[in-house]
Design brief:
Layout lengths: L2 E4 H12 L2 H8 L12 E2 L3 E2 L5 H8 L5 H8 L6 H8 L9 H23 L8 H14 L9 H12 L2 H10 L10 H15 L10 E4 L1
Antiparallel strand pairs: 1-4, 2-3
Helix pairs in contact: 1-7, 1-10, 6-7, 7-10, 8-9, 9-10
Length: about 210
Amino acid sequence: LPMTLSTIGMAQLVQHEISSESYYQAKLAHPTWPGGESGVTIGIGYDLGYCSVEQFERDWQTLLTPANLTRLTAVCGIKASAAKAAVSVLGDITIPLAAAKQVFTQVSLPLYAKKTQQLYPGIEQLAADAQTALVSLVYNRGASIKGETRREMAAIQPLVLQQNYAAIAAKIISMKRLWLDKGLDGLLKRRDDEAKLVAQAERNYRADELVNIG
């Protein structure tokens, strides 16, 4: 079954990844290292630390120069402090916003929609804003539910089947415990926005607000 995402939720996801077009040009048009366990990241949250050389080349080969493609393949699979060190010599590479949006829409979004479906069976039955919020969550955090830091991610599984919007939203808010007082206000705001999308998902949607993925 295809997922049904909302344009509002998708715009919010992009907003959290790039802040704004001017911010993208100023801060994200060149490879970055977002911190933590991230790899070198390009475009709209495209993390090279978590993709293979083959996947990266497939997604970007028509959009980057051969020289830049080669330089970036060298950091595929590299994460954390190694990625922080690697990014310092990649600053002259520019990723056009149009290319970033193309990869996001054609590659990243369908890929993460699929991962979200696998993690949360029955998600297609939720209202579109809630589906989109959970895709945003998995896009940001990945699809693992192992370990104490992932307990809310796991707890959402039965709530999706129950279509319990309020409880799903509460679990997303509960995750904020992981980033409090760590200077990661963007992540805290992202969780708040995702939770709000879920909590208010049962609304009337116009046809032009809905996008089928998968």
